Amino acid sequence: MVNVCEVLGTEYPIIQGAMARIAECNLAAAVSNGGGLGIIAAGGESADWLREQIKKTREMTDKPFGVNIMLLAPNVDELIDVVCEEKVPVVTTGAGNPGKYIARMKECGIKVVPVIANVALALRVERAGADAVVAEGTEAGGHIGETATMALVPQIVDAVKIPVLAAGGIADGRGIAAAYMLGAKGVQVGTRFLVANECIVAPGYKNAILKAKDSSTVATGRSTGHPVRVIKNKLAREILALEKKNEDVEKINELCTGTLAAAVRDGDADHGNIMSGQIAGMVKKEQPAAEIIEEMFKEVEEIYEDRNHICRTGRSV
């Protein structure tokens, strides 16, 4: 099995989650400088914006970084053109099958790592030439699938021969160690990086994460076919109320219009769409991105050193 760090060109086997309107050059460069793979999220953005972000990231780091492309974006072909022309080291994809784009990206020297939520898609992207996959469980923030990380990861690992990174519900060394026990060779982490010093979200957004408890998130939008995990607030309750009434998708979408920007830019904790994973209740402090990475992997080492205490005396793992 190929080492994930060799695939990504990183010191640590960790990818920063692609958070739309949030993951831009400052956070991406900080994560890459810290030994992980920083990601620029191109979802909802223009090709010109993406090209400028790539340029700025290269000015801030000489380490590998990546771009995430949402395949449902209306300008997806333009975004693919940009990453190919700029020869971005790594591209992650979401919201669909990137199969028709993979060969072109690989011809440009790009490592392709789709984010998937089921075995069927994992097999399809592997056949199309993906270098690795991120198996993302429903514990994750933002757009989610239905299967939990604990159940999803080992099934993906058993199905494919390429490296698997786990995502969803991972915020510290315990989560990383657990992912490895499930067969993953790396992780993708989003929510914890929301409170990185270099993350551009408004203070109100960060405070919502830092104040969160174990039960503070909810999945909205199930009735639309596109569930999204967010922090419970007035907006989330309004969306759920509309869904309970079986209101039209158009009415729900109208209510949600502009709410992500309200959260990210204005820090609106009541009417902003504060996307977050279920592990928000474990996130307790702001830190530099590099410190977050170092702390998590130091915890992994401590857990690994303690592995022989799993079994009874005289047995080892």
From TrEMBL:
Keywords: Flavoprotein, FMN, Oxidoreductase
Signal peptide range: none
Pfam families: NMO
InterPro entries (alphabetical): Aldolase_TIM, Enoyl_ACP_red-II_put, NMO
Domain of life of the organism encoding this protein: Bacteria
NCBIfam families: enACPred_II
Role according to the record: Nitronate monooxygenase that uses molecular oxygen to catalyze the oxidative denitrification of alkyl nitronates. Acts on propionate 3-nitronate (P3N), the presumed physiological substrate. Probably functions in the detoxification of P3N, a metabolic poison produced by plants and fungi as a defense mechanism.
Name of this chain's protein: Probable nitronate monooxygenase
Source organism (scientific name): Anaerovorax odorimutans
Taxonomic classification: Bacteria, Bacillati, Bacillota, Clostridia, Peptostreptococcales
